[in-house]
Amino acid sequence: MFADRPRFFSDVVLDVTLYRGARRALLVRAGLELENLPAHVLKWLGEIQSTEKTEFSETTLMVGISAPAVMYDLLIHGFYLMEEAAIDPARKP
User: Fold this and answer.
1) What's this model's pTM, rounded to 2 decimal places?
2) Is 74 exposed, middle or buried (0-12, 13-18, 19+ CB in 10 A)?
């Protein structure tokens, strides 16, 4: 009955589009159009500088970001927002 479904959550692979702005990025699940996203998401992203179609799974390596948490947002909300970490260099005495 469920032969076509993945047995484990880690087996799920989503087709996504990665939109990159200057310092921010947006992952959007396949089938969801940009114009259907909340307006504040697009405003937050700013001007799109590049677009790349790719795949995402729970095992996708992401430094400092939980791939299962990203997968959850992609499945529930259809998108995931990423911002470059602000590194504040330690002040020298």
Assistant:
1) 0.78
2) buried
